[in-house]
Amino acid sequence: MKSLAFIKRVQVFALVCAAIFVGATSIDALAQGVRFPAVSPGASLKQTVGVTDISVVYSRPGVKGRDIWGKVVAYNELWRAGANLSTMLEVSDDVKIEGQKVPAGKYSIFLIPAQQGDWTLVVNKAVNLGGTNGYKQEDDVFRAKVKPVVQATSTEWLEYTINDFTDSSATLALTWEKLRIPMKIEIATSELSFSKARNAVAAGQAANIGFANYALQTNSNLEEAMKMVDASIAVQESYRNHVLKARLLEKMGKKADAVKFLEKAITLGKAAKTAPFDLADNEKMLATWKSSK
To answer: Where are the alpha helices (DSSP H) in the chain?
Structure first.
């Protein structure tokens, strides 16, 4: 029969082993929750162009003293245009990229570098691919030629930017090492804006004023804008909708009617508890209109 001392030693040993196991498990669990620097850190980019959101989700490899083109990134082979997962592009509306139609949605971007001359841009329907693994050419939305531009200075970490944008266009560019690869994006912003406003009105939303403002900015759809302003006035007269009607009438060459509605707008503005921020400007405009009648 084992002695009591021996049994106690066994029990102590078991407790120590259990403590070591629990401690190791806790340390392992803690380590799993710790983040360490990624070789190619993730990044995202978002820019609104007109009324369309454009975003890119990608990973950023570094040059790190390496020969990039032709070595790290092979010529004449499909490249994920970043690192880790395939680079993802998302557009909230239909756009054109390098002249090619791209419906609203998410896509993968790939490039095929060339040692000389143009590169090939590939936009593909599949997303979150393991780099080029799982890529299928039949899922391509289009392929187009893009021209790399040599930069005077080197960019250490691969970067996407959206620049040179207007209400209806922008340049999406990948820059890495001493090369920049620009990709032209075009958007039918005017048509999109008016279409969205019409849909909002049809759904019972008050998009009348926004439609009229944009019609004035673009000098288009003025008759339709007038109908929307009239509908707004029928619901409730306000300083703002009378100013808009006056400006629309003036734009359409109906100066006498424009003066009447701007006079009414100014009367409404002066009666408001808080004077409209542009009241003085509209008083000056009214004086100008009257002097040029």
So the answer is: 4-32, 189-202, 208-218, 222-235, 239-251, 255-271, 279-291
